[in-house]
Amino acid sequence: MSAERFEKKETIDLRKRYIGPSCKIFFSHDPIKIVRAKGQYMYDEKGQRYLDCINNVAHGKHTRTGIYTQRAQQMELLNTNSRFLHDNLVLYAQRLQATLPDKLAVCYFVNSGSEANDLALRLARQYTGHRDIITLENAYHGHVSSLIDISPYKFHQLSDTEQNQFVHVASSPDVYRGKHRADHPDPATAYADEVKDIINKAHKKGGKIAAFIAESLQSCGGQVIPPVGYFQQVAQYLPRTSTHLLMGNVNLISVVIFPLCVAYLWPQFGGNPVSCAIGLAVLDVIEKEDLQGNALRVGQYLTSLLEKQKEKHLLIGDIRGRGLFVGVELVRDRLKLTPATAEAQEVIYRLKEQYILLSADGPHRNVLKFKPPMCFTTEDAELVVEKIDVILTGISFPPPLCGLCTTRKGQSV
Ligand SMILES: Cc1ncc(COP(=O)(O)O)c(C=O)c1O
């Protein structure tokens, strides 16, 4: 069966008619219809190839025959719930745990990042008997109600009365634009101390903290990389019941890994043989093809190429990255840090015209956000940086506000 049943225009019309308008689409003025993908590339209905620098959830790589063979084979054999013994469940859990500290000992499988975070919250509250949660400014933790409550990226759209009174927001540990910057003698301690103050204030008001939740690297919040030592210091001020969340290369599986003392608190049923077979196959590909090593090497190369662009283009205020998680913050003024929002939108739209997909995010939507599949190559890095160079050279400085760009928003999770 062909992946494409309708002409693109018809797909657009049907989407407008049947899909809720809050489900945002990339490049809403001229959306892309993707019908297949391979490696780091996606292909539209005309066979045009796009280099994917943003896909995020397909973090290993797009379509991989081995993975889908495993899935098909397991589907032929059996799919059922986790209340029967099955080797895929225990094998997958064992292999995931082997990548983590011993303390994070046992797994619960679920279907999505949102479900995993919701479960982590539930168990943290039950284990501690406390209710309050500390989250970070601009954080995004998922789309279900319990997580909108702790996702300032989303809940800033709510009124004060709609916001959950048990949720406390600490500053984003952003050393470029945040409260404590790179010129601070010890930003990690300064940001961690703020968390300590929040805990003390909550105690004084009779509240008690159940959990501190944070993305290890804040993505929607603008590709923020916390200063070294920040999480370790924050952990000293909290009950030590950490969890870890992993997700499975666009397949419907995620896992929360708990210490044993927390994990017995609530019955949990997720993790079926098919999803676990896929999870195992994804781990095989990551290991056999050394995708983690590749992400580190290519990510460093990409960051070094971007650093050179920073010397050339005043619009680039900051480059920050860990592996293939890289952010390029565009500013109109390097001292005032005036966000170059329209220019960032201009860059991603111009890249799209050249068949490269990138997005812009952060509270000011001025951070170019790289999260390509882990099989991204040095040639891909060179290509995208070369194109960005040409685009930034063409943007006059200080840049004019383009009416078209300012309305080009709507790139959301
Ligand atoms: C940091 C983070 N947490 C949670 C989620 C929610 O995951 P899901 O969309 O699988 O529910 C996302 C999704 O983008 C995410 O980026």
From TrEMBL:
It is found in: Mitochondrion. Its main location: mitochondrion. It catalyses: phosphoethanolamine + H2O = acetaldehyde + NH4(+) + phosphate. Pfam families: Aminotran_3. One of its GO terms (molecular function) is ethanolamine-phosphate phospho-lyase activity. Keywords: Mitochondrion, Pyridoxal phosphate. InterPro entries: Aminotrans_3 (IPR005814), PyrdxlP-dep_Trfase (IPR015424), PyrdxlP-dep_Trfase_major (IPR015421), PyrdxlP-dep_Trfase_small (IPR015422). The keyword Mitochondrion applies. One of its GO terms (biological process) is embryonic hemopoiesis. Its cofactor is pyridoxal 5'-phosphate. One of its GO terms (cellular component) is mitochondrion. CDD domains: OAT_like. Catalyzes the pyridoxal-phosphate-dependent breakdown of phosphoethanolamine, converting it to ammonia, inorganic phosphate and acetaldehyde. This is Ethanolamine-phosphate phospho-lyase. It comes from Neolamprologus brichardi.
